[in-house]
Design goal:
It is built from seven helices and 16 strands. With 368 residues, the chain is of the alpha+beta class.
Length: 368
């Protein structure tokens, strides 16, 4: 079997997305918001979304069949080319051409060096682990995967899965197949050297017809009231070293919504508030603190102290009901120097979301 030209790019590509620990927040601010807005307003399978369409309720619809069925376009695209459906785990994901930040921020990305689903060969589809592919390890041989294009729906059955190291090549196939790739483990917010692959082979194809398939769109993440003077210092992972740990989604989230990029977008806002809070406290700017954390007493050990040393990765837990996150908790252990109470502390930061704005709702530090 011939090696897919992008095999190494594939496995490294998801890894590059996992460099999220240093790039995600910058992307979401400079690129993501504009992309999402453009996508929600103008795109649904290469067709304009008209006023009054289902997109108003957070959905976008599959376009009617046309002669340009799943046209590949360039190596990076903001047009949705099809839907990836995985019934067992409730995934209905838009598929974009390309595996860069703009694509993986809102969709499953198609590796442009591989074929499209339904064509002879192996179609490579990538997603961030804390999004559409967070549950693909649950798939077993025989489980169904569908790729729905405007004209044809291609039906695949899972035949294998594997955990491989970054840089492992992905091979082509003689028959139509798809390989879905994400990082392993699937709750990691840090750079991980392992990849999880699920391969499925085509077993049937049918006319898509004029059905009304829909998929959940990406919502704008909550805003954080960071004062301009503080924002100018940098309150993102691109400008502040914060080791990230694992991600957990609790409560009663909608299962389809949970397997989109929406929880990850909320996590980005939560990290921004956390970093802004640390900077405000260590610089003694309690005026900044009051904007970020109204009605929350500043934790004394951090006020006027040096930047804390992070002894453990920062774990993030979101509590959701349906398709809304109400609160976020971040936990880690830190070493504090300077200030009034240096020492080692177990730190818990609670954040709340109201009316599209995320603020700090509690900040506790217990001697560890």
């Amino acid at each position: 079997m011939a090696l897919i030209a992008a095999g190494l790019v594939l496995v490294l590509g998801v890894g590059a997305w996992q460099l999220y620990a240093t790039l995600w927040t910058t992307h979401s601010e400079r690129v993501g918001h504009a992309l999402v807005h453009h996508f929600l307003k103008n795109r649904a399978l290469n067709a304009p979304v008209k006023a009054g369409s289902s997109i108003a309720s957070g959905m976008a619809a599959l376009a009617a069949c046309s002669a340009s069925d799943s046209a590949a376009g360039g190596r990076g695209s903001t047009s949705v080319h099809g839907l990836l459906e995985i019934p067992k785990i409730g995934v209905v994901a838009p598929v974009l051409q390309g595996v860069g930040d703009p694509q993986l921020a809102v969709a499953v990305g198609h590796d442009p060096y591989s074929v499209w689903p339904g064509v002879r060969g192996n179609s490579v589809l990538e997603a961030h682990d804390v999004s559409y592919f967070t549950s693909i390890s649950q798939l077993k041989p025989g489980d169904v995967v569908r790729y729905v294009s405007p004209c044809t729906t291609y039906i695949f059955q899972v035949i294998s899965h594997a955990i491989v190291t970054q840089g492992t090549p992905v091979y082509n196939t003689t028959d139509p197949s798809v390989t879905m790739v994400t990082c392993w483990p699937t709750d990691a917010l840090w750079f991980t050297p392992d990849r999880y692959l699920v391969t499925a082979t085509e077993v049937a194809k049918v006319a898509t017809g004029a059905h009304k398939k829909t998929y959940l769109t990406t919502s704008k993440p909550p805003s954080v009231p960071v004062p301009a003077a503080l924002a100018s210092q940098g309150v993102t992972l691109a400008t502040y070293s914060l080791p990230m740990g694992t991600f957990t989604l609790t409560g009663s989230p909608n299962s389809a919504w949970a397997q989109t990029t929406n929880p990850l977008l909320v996590e980005g806002s939560a990290v921004e508030a956390f970093i802004a809070g640390v900077r405000a406290l260590t610089e003694g700017h309690l005026d900044w603190w009051r904007q970020l954390a109204p009605n929350v007493a500043p934790p004394a050990p951090l006020v006027g102290a040096g930047n804390p040393g992070y002894l453990t990765p920062t774990d993030v837990s979101e509590k959701a009901t349906g398709d809304k996150v109400g609160s976020v908790r971040m936990t880690d252990t830190v070493s504090v120097t300077g200030g009034t109470a240096p020492g080692r502390y177990a730190m818990t930061v609670d954040e709340a979301i109201h009316g599209g704005t995320l603020t700090i709702a509690g900040w506790t530090m217990a001697i560890a």
